[in-house]
């Protein structure tokens, strides 16, 4: 059976042709095939099961939100709730100002403002 797996180190695609040890082409780390038993993805499975880099990145952003955001008395333009979470981010160079991201604590509406 041929399975498509993902390197736990770097997320590179690994092809397992039934060997016990799979070596990653990208970071040369070795993986024991049986470690993947619970997460084996066959070529027929749907895209939802892919532990993609995108999903990894998304969960990092969530963590960042939790750490950096603070609440402010600001009216949500969508539901009218009067408390928003916000955090700021420097997107480009320092003299171009920063972007403030608002996030409604009630309806999760999100928007950003460039200052
Ligand atoms: Zn790797
Ligand atoms: Zn809202």
UniProtKB/TrEMBL annotation:
One of its GO terms (molecular function) is DNA-directed RNA polymerase activity. InterPro entries: Rpa12/Rpb9/Rpc10/TFS, Zn_ribbon_RPA12_C, Zn_ribbon_RPB9, Znf_TFIIS. Pfam families: Zn_ribbon_RPB9 (PF02150), Zn_ribbon_TFIIS (PF01096). It is found in: Nucleus, Nucleolus. SUPFAM superfamilies: Zinc beta-ribbon (SSF57783). One of its GO terms (cellular component) is RNA polymerase I complex. Zn(2+) 1 binds at residues 7, 10, 24, 27. CDD domains: Zn-ribbon_RPA12. It comes from the Eukaryota. GO terms for biological process: termination of RNA polymerase I transcription. Signal peptide: none annotated. Zn(2+) 2 binds at residues 76, 79, 104, 107. Keywords: DNA-directed RNA polymerase, Metal-binding, Nucleus, Transcription, Zinc, Zinc-finger. A zinc finger (C4-type) spans 7-27. Residues 72-112 form the TFIIS-type domain. Belongs to the archaeal rpoM/eukaryotic RPA12/RPB9/RPC11 RNA polymerase family. DNA-dependent RNA polymerase catalyzes the transcription of DNA into RNA using the four ribonucleoside triphosphates as substrates. This is DNA-directed RNA polymerase subunit. It comes from Diversispora epigaea. The lineage of its organism: Eukaryota, Fungi, Fungi incertae sedis, Mucoromycota, Glomeromycotina.
